[in-house]
Each structure stands twice: as C-alpha cells, then as structure tokens.
Amino acid sequence: MDMGILAQHLFNGLMLGMVYAMIAVGFSLFFGVLDVIKFSHGDVVSVGAFAALGGASAIGLLVDMPGLSLLFGLLAAIAVGGLAGVVIGGTLVLPLRNAPPVNVLLVTLMAGTILREAIRLGVPNGGNPKPFPVLLPQWQITAGSFSIGFDSVLILIAGIGIILATHLLITRTRIGLAIRAVAQDVDVARLAGIDFRRTVLGTFALGSALASVAGLMLGLYYREVNFSMGLVLGVIGFAAAVVGGLGSLLGPILGGFLFAFVQTLVTIVLPTASAYKDVVAFGVVIALIGLFPTGLIAERSSERV
Amino acid sequence: MRSTNLDAAIATGAPPQARSLPGTAAAILVPLAAFGALAGLLQVHEQWETGLLVLAFLAALVLLDRSRAGRSLAEACRTQSGIASTSAVLAALALLWTFREDHYSLLMVATVALYAVAGVGLNIQMAFGGIANFAAAAFFSIGAYTAAVLAGHTGLPHLLVLAAGGVVSALIGVVMLLPVLRTRGHYVALVTIAFGVLLRTLLEVNDTFGGPQGMKIPGFAPFGSDFGDVATIAGFDVSFYLPYALAAAALFALAFLAGRMLERSWVGIAMDAVRTDEIAASAFGLSPARWKATAFLTGNVLIGVAGALYGMMNGFVNPNGAGFGESLIMLSIIVLGGLGNFWGAIVAGAVIIILPEKLQSIQEYRLLIFAVVVIAILRFRPGGILPRPLRTLGRQQGGAS
Fold first, then answer.
1. Which domain range does residue B28 map to?
2. Does some domain include residue A249?
3. Chain B residue with minimum CA distance to A102
C-alpha cells in the first residue's frame, strides 16, 4: 500500500483514538466516584458539538473572526455539556445511587434519548446532518504523497494537551485529590471533610465537559455534526473504558486508542472489507473482557466477605 | 398490617391470607378489569380518549399501591394466583374473540404476547440469574433468522422450526458464556452490548443472510395449513392474525408456566441464592457459574422461540430488529413491568408497544415521551409497575402456593 495513504489512515486512527479516549475517561471518572455507568454520556458529545455549533455560528453572524468564533464555540460546549452532566448527575444518578445498577443504566440511557430528541426537535432542521463552520486555518502540510491539514494537527495536539491536563488535574490538584478520595472510600472521604455531593457533581461536570469538547473536535475534524452521532460514540467510549479498566485514568485512554487501532488496522489490512471494522473491534472487546474480566488496568479493590 | 401478616407467614409457614369470598371475587375481577382496559386501549381512536385511559391507568396504579383496599386487592390476586390466572386466560380469549376481525389490533396483541414471551426469558436471565442482557433483540432476531433459513429452505415441520429458533439462540449464547460468566455487573452489560452491535453490523454488511434487506420468512404452518390462509373459524369470519395471536398467547402461557415452575423449584431458589450473594451461595455448594449459565441459556431459548414466531408472523426479518434500541425496548418492558414478574411484562408491553401506536399524531414526540415515562416510573417506582412479590419460604397450604 502507498505510504502516504497508510500514514493518512494512521493519523485518522490517532484522531479517533483520542476522541474515544476523551469520552472513555468520563465513563471511568463517573464509575470511580459513584460506581455507576452514566449512559447518556455519548449524547453529551452531540450536545457539546451542537452547543459549539450554536456558539460559533452566533459569533460568526456578528463578526467574521474564526478565532473568536472558535473560542465562543469552545466555551459554549464546555458550559452546556458540563451543565447537562451536572443536571443528569444531580437529578437522576445521585438519587438512584442505591437502586439496582440496571435501573441507573436504563434511566441514563433514557436521559440520553431525551438529549438526542431535544436536539432533533429543538434545533431547526435538527434531524439532518449539519455542516460545521471552518474555524481553523486551512494550510496543508505535504510530504510526498502524504498530505494533512494543519487544522487536523492542531486538533490532535489540543486533544493530547487536554488529556494531559485532565491527568494533572486528577493527580496534582486538591479537586483531583477529593475525586480520588471519594472514589476510594466515600465514608472516609466524608469524615475527612470532603463535600461528597459537590465532588460528585464536579466530577460529572468535568467528565461531561471533556465529552463536549470531544464533540467540538469531531465537528471541526469532519466538518459535520449529527444529532445521533453520540449513540455509537457512547457505546464505543463505554467499551474502551471497560476494556481499559473502569475507575482508572490510564486504562480508558489505553482502551480508546486500542479500539481505534483495531478499527484502523482492519481498514488497512482489509480495504475491501472495511465495513467489518466495527464487527472486528467489538469482537476484540468481547475477547479481551473474557481474558481480562476487570479490564487491562484493574481498579485496585479488595472484597470483604 | 400486611407486613405483620407476612412475617407471621414466614415464621409459621401459614399462607399469608386465608381464602375468602371477597378475595376470590377480587382475584377474578382484577384480571378482567386489566384486560378490559387493554380492550379499551385497542378500541380508542381519539387522542383525548387515549390520554384519559392513560390517566385512569396511572390512577388505578396509585390506588392499588397506596390505598388499603387496593393493597388487599393485590394481595388477594397474589394468594389466589390460580383463580386470577384462570380469569386472565378467559379474559384474554374473550378479548381476542372480540377483536377477531381487526387485523391491526390482533397484530398488536400478538406482538405484545411475543415480546412478553421474550420478557419471560429475559426475566429468567436478569431477575433470577442476575445477568444483565442488553442484546435481547439480537437473540430475538437470531430466532427469526433461524426460522427464515429453516422454514424457507428446508421442509422441517414448523413446530420444530420454532424449537430450533430457541436452540440456535442458546447455542450462539454459549459463545458468550465465557466472558459473561467471568465478568460481573457493568462488565456483563458491556459484553452483551458489544455482542448486539457486532451481530447487527455483521448481518448488515454480510450478504449471506440477505444484508440490509434481510430475509423473507414463510408463514407459520404448524399442521400443514398456513396461518396466513385462515379466513374463517367455525363459520365466523376472522382475521388471519387471529391464529397468530392465539399461538402467541399459547406460547406466553407455556413460557409463563415454565418460568413459574422454574421459579418455584429448587432451580429458582438456587438462582436466587447465586444472584443475591455469590460467595455465600458457593459456600453452600451451589456453583455460581452453573446456575448463571443455566439462567442465561434458558432465557435465550425462550427469546429465540419468541423471535422465530414473531418473524413468521411478520413474514420478514432484517438487521434493524437486532439493534441496540430494540434491545433497550425489551429491557424497558421487563424493568417497567417489574423485574421477575411475568404479568408485568404483559402490562408494560401493552404500554410500550400499543400506546405509541395510539399516539400517532404526536409521532414526532413519541420517543421523547417514552423516555420521560420510563424515567418517571424508574425514579418514583423503582420496582416497576408490578414488583416481584417476596418469596415466602416455608410450608404453604392448599392451592395457595
């Protein structure tokens, strides 16, 4: 195969892996603090993408400054996505903390449906794919037969930066310490004076904002957003988080890149059968969970009987 | 007062409530009223009528749960389940006969019954075995595809085709056993979700089973004559969906009996024990893997059989039916109905399948309303519409068990 196309595929795989990782980190964070799966997470990605679209378009109508539009799009995505996370977390997930896990799963799935339908019905012509404005400089970087947009490189770098920043936030700051403390032992964390509710809602805001920004990046990269894009992304993000190990931070990142790697590999090795990429990727997920039932990087836990 | 009764029942082994004439009357009337409401739902055309019916249903639910009279009605149905079931069977037959010429209503009823059969299977997996199966629709479709292949391309008798649907569904379930048994909770959920997505995508991109268009399935012809050709029964004009609805109802009755027998036998107790506390159960010599596998595969058989008959009734099957959304609908039915309660699957099935059809004019908002209703029920009534009654262990007398 042509080296240029190969590199293109690999770059695309990296990009997807990063987006998956950003979504998976949210699943893992929520599971860490509350031991729940918040399945509306995938739809928060679409909410973020549409919020960014709205914010950027609004600025775009006033002044023709792509940079300012991008900034406002980013802020809108973070604000709306984070808010969605806090509202769902506070009204649906926290009150159902002691209900059977499947109830929480169903309730959040339905919350996701509400978000999805709200976009479809609330945004003018929301049922159809929407073009995303071009907000980044359109320079091309060419090396032989390999050609890549400067904007894509920027998105990739920004994504890696965001993931690193999240890592630092969790491991180096007081907020991160509180999140880790609640994840380890709620009661002891409370005894140490940590506000449980605030920490949990903060985690929801953080994870959902990450997913929202992932939505914005997808919009910038593919130049199109779609109200139902979140459903599959949610399933993939969840799969990546579980394969990597729920509750850890590195695990979901690993899982996200692994999933994208398998998809890309199938596309490269079997160009004629690239439709099978999801079949293979989910097959690998099932096999990996069979082999490593608690994920590649297991959450340290001991079971007392 | 109820709870002291129950405590006494557990302590002494006496039935919670002796038979009484009003109790018997209640056990007869409650199922009648429920099927009457279903008939009403099938009959109404105007939006406001549907709305009124929904309000009445919610009011009845609240009354049944919150008022003393309502609670004793529910208790009566529970203690005299034999009488209540008989009454329900007769009411169901009367309902089917009333709508004998109405294609659409019969199709709805048959669909609800078949989803309820799958619901019994799903209940065995989830409520008894504790395995969250998010791929129910995938196994349902496997049953339908099996029917398409066997009934369309071989001369196998159709009753065997139904059975084969269940067997193939269970066999494919065997592939999933290792990851399902090794994992717990959310991890199991992911295994089944991944399987559902995988199967659907595979059916779509692979042309062996018809690709995105799916396959045609010949009509159900168990005794040589195709159900689709039936036009009269005993001199009455009937819709060809009537035999399907009857078969679906019969299948539900069989699944119900099988599930109930399973629940009441030592198998059901073993499954309950394993689900409630794996470690304690294995300390008593019960193998968690064995009972979880039993629950998973038994459930798959029922889901597959239901899928096979559903496919034959519809005449076709395509990959859309295997999707995650469809699995969610099945899961919502049993969680809404009340995990572990087989009648609940019928009630919730009627709400989830028939109600949206009756709200056509607000088609656009259907999913939204559906989601809000499910959230409301789970938030305020976590046990579902008809929660599973507590198992009363101990000696029980007469037919009350």
1. 1-98
2. no
3. B132
Per residue in B243-273, pLDDT tens? 889 899 999 999 999 998 998 899 999 998 9
Give me the phi and psi of B340, to 5 degrees please.
90, -5
Residues 6+ away with beta carbon under 8 Å from B364: A121
For residue A92, what is the nearest residue in chain B, using CA coordinates? B379
Rounded to whole angstroms, the Cα distance separating B374 from A107 reads 7
Are B275 and B164 contained in the same domain? Answer: yes
State how many domains chain B has: 2
The tokens 């739809």 sit on which residue?
A43
- If asked whether residues B199 and B268 sit together in one domain, one would say yes
Q: Residue B328: its chain A contacts at CB < 8 A?
A: 106, 109
Can you tell me the distance from the alpha carbon of A238 to that of B324, in angstroms, rounded to the nearest whole number?
14
Non-local (6+) Cβ contacts of B254 within 8 A are none
Maximum Cα–Cα distance across chain B: 63
d(CA A18, CA A24): 10
- Alpha-carbon gap, residue B401 to B15, rounded angstroms: 8
**Residue A77 located in a structural domain:** yes
HEC letters along B145-200: HHHHHHHHHCCCCHHHHHHHHHHHHHHHHHHHHHHHHHCCCHHHHHHHHHHHHHHH
Residue with tokens 């904002």: A209
User: Residue A87: CB partners within 8 Å, gap ≥ 6?
Assistant: none
Chain A positions touching B190 (Cβ under 8 A) are 238-239, 242, 285, 289
- As beta bridge partners, residue B233 has B236
- For residue range B269-302, list pLDDT tens digits in order: 999 898 888 889 999 999 989 999 999 999 999 9
Q: Chain B contacts of A37, Cβ < 8 Å?
A: 186, 189
Give Cβ neighbours of residue A247 (< 8 Å, ≥ 6 apart): A28, A31, A32, A183, A299
Q: State whether B83 and B123 are in the same domain.
A: no
Contacts of A299 in chain B (CB under 8 A): none
Instruction: Determine if residue B235 is left, alpha or beta; phi over 0 gives left, psi from -120 to 50 gives alpha, anything else beta.
Output: left
CB contact under 8 A, B202 and A276: yes
Whether residue A113 lies within 8 A of chain B, CB to CB, comes out as yes
Residues 6+ apart with CB under 8 A from B110: B241, B244, B245, B247, B248, B249, B313
pLDDT confidence of residue B15 = 47
Determine contact, residues B377/B385, Cβ cutoff 8 Å. Answer: yes
B376 or B3: which leads in pLDDT: B376
Secondary structure, 3-state, B198-226: HHHHHHHHCHHHCHHHCEECCCCCCCCCC
